[in-house]
Amino acid sequence: MQTIAQLKLRPAWVGYNTQKVPLDPHTGRAAATNNPDTWGTAAQAWAAKKRHRWAGIGYVFTIGAGVVGVDLDDCFTDDGHLNDTARQIVQMLNSYTERSPSGNGLHILACGAIPHSVKPPGGGFEMYNELRYFTVTGRQFGAAAVEQGFVSGDIEDRNDELNALFVVFGGDTEPTAPQPRPAIERGNLTTSEAEVARALAVIPPNGDYNTDWLPILMAVHDAFPDERGISLIESWSPGYTGEVARKWRSFETTERAGRITIASLFHRAKQYGYEPIRRIATSSARRGSDITDALAQRRRVNEHGL
After folding, report:
1. Which residues form the Primase C-terminal domain (predicted)?
2. Which long-range contacts link 275-281 to residues 24+ away (Cβ below 8 Å)?
3. 50-79: pLDDT as tens digits
4. What are the angstrom distances between the C-alpha of 138 and each of 11, 105, 196?
5. How open is the CA angle 113-37-64, to the nearest 5 degrees?
């Protein structure tokens, strides 16, 4: 769990103009969601907003922070109440929720890890874990309920709930929860070394260290936390032999909030032409009930291993 005050201290904030272009608090020029040098703290972003008369400030999602954003558009009925789907999502996540700049949507922040961001066709729902920013208004939704203790005003741990939403709203692979770790230890590994090698083969090995190379190491380590994983990475990205082994050891000794799973590797590879093994498709007409069903199933798996 994190508080909004803690989130504001992270150097992951930008300003934005009326076109929603992210802006660097330090220089006033365009910021990039894959370049931390163009971000600042919330205080720095707010000071720059006032100085340059920007439209507002926003938070940039990074996998390392372990915070996921859910964006709900046009979620209010004519009489000002939440529509059924939005209400169910808000109640399920029960985490920090605020109105979007338009006032017609909601932004929800929750702690957890999903394989990749989700933006299904048709709009209305988006979910991000990296390389995007959320406008942050501070106009908390349901403030009275928060004061009475019925709705959380903090950024709560909601990994199961986020992954249930991931499945229902268009995730193209089944998410893996941080616990238990990992399939290889249970003698039930379904991801082969050959399949991982095939996915790695289509990904350029010379990307940015923090946003490209390191997340891929974490993803492979999720499925192969032994010498096989090191060998796969060294074959894919020669020249980092000692660095790979050091990172492997650090993954074992450091507890990461919101682990990156092997699914994120396959998602990234798909962007370079890799064909995923399986897909999960959900009819939009069934999404309301499927949200509850998916969450119930994940809880049964976590509690009973069923």
Report:
1. 197-269
2. 276/172, 276/173, 277/173, 277/195, 278/173, 278/174, 279/172, 279/173, 280/167, 280/171, 280/172, 280/173, 280/174
3. 999 999 999 999 988 999 999 999 989 888
4. 18, 13, 42
5. 15
DSSP category for residue 218 = H
Give the integer Cα–Cα distance in Å for 36 and 211: 10
- Give residue 166's Cα distance to chain centre: 10
Residue 116 tokens, joined: 């990749």
CA distance linking residue 85 with residue 216, whole number of Å:
34
**Which element (helix H / strand E) includes 245?**
helix 241-253
pTM confidence score:
0.61
Q: CA of 154: how far to CAs of 98, 119, 135, 147, in Å?
A: 11, 25, 17, 12
> How many residues in the chain?
306
C-alpha 235/C-alpha 199 separation (Å) is 13
User: What mean pLDDT, rounded, does the chain reach?
Assistant: 80
Alpha-carbon distance values, 63 to 88, 95, 111, 138, 247 (Å):
26, 18, 11, 23, 16
Q: Which of 261, 199, 256, 258 is nearest to 224 (CA)?
A: 261
Centroid of chain to Cα 245: 26
Long-range contacts of 242-245 (CB under 8 A, 24+ apart): 244/217
